Amino acid sequence: MAEFDEDPHAYDVYAASPGVRSYQFVQFDSAAGVARLALNRPPANVLSVEMMDEINAALESLEYDRSIKLLVIAATGKYFSVGFEIHDHTGDRAYMMLEGLRRIVENIGKVDRPTLAVVNGPATGAGSVVVAACDMALAAAQNSKFGHPEIRAGVFNTVAAALLPRLVGRKRAFEMILGGGLLSAAEAERVGLVTRAVADDKLEAEVAALIQRFQEGSAPLLQHTRRAIAGGLDLPFADAVRHAEDVYLNQLLNTEDVAEGLRAVTEKRKPVWKDR
User: Fold this and answer.
1) Are residues 112 and 64 in the same domain?
2) What pTM was computed for the model?
């Protein structure tokens, strides 16, 4: 739920590129193999039912877009997101609220491409869940905070209850959800909630460098490699290996970029990907 913390003096690292589609609560566009979705409901990007509907519409539009190499989820303003709209916790909207967040997490996975959260301000409650659902997350070391203060208001986050034990471990998840405290970016990195805490003044450059590495990659290679990892996360080790082998033999080897990559190594040159 929405909880305003002290001013983190955050700043926006998301810059929308030309051709942004028309949404009320998000900024969304795709260019040069990168899809960018920015939460844009000032002042704190509180996730209302209507805003989550827009997020899901944007994510669902990417499911079959073969040009995408990376999805970046960021936010405008001084907050990533401080969670659910408080009025959505009651009546018929409570079901719509929970369904909206569940669909966001499911749709992030269905994009079937690497996903990166960029956090430069508090990401609490449902906002923290959106970050946790992404494959990778870079966070401003000073400005960013994470956690689940919902327990203080007599509720809990249903997706966090299922996702956090898988991500940060059972005992840490109990502490985070039942205790209601907030983690710094460095603490979030230590427990595995974010990939890396970055000095605030270096965040934009770090994000740009990471995006460039993905832009230089092969779209099907990135997709199939991510699929091999993600599909085995909840499987026993032997089954996870067999899943990865199936993706490798029956999907990856059918792409043209595999032959180009191996040929480029032999010829000691950079590959020229065809993205197919």
Assistant:
1) yes
2) 0.90
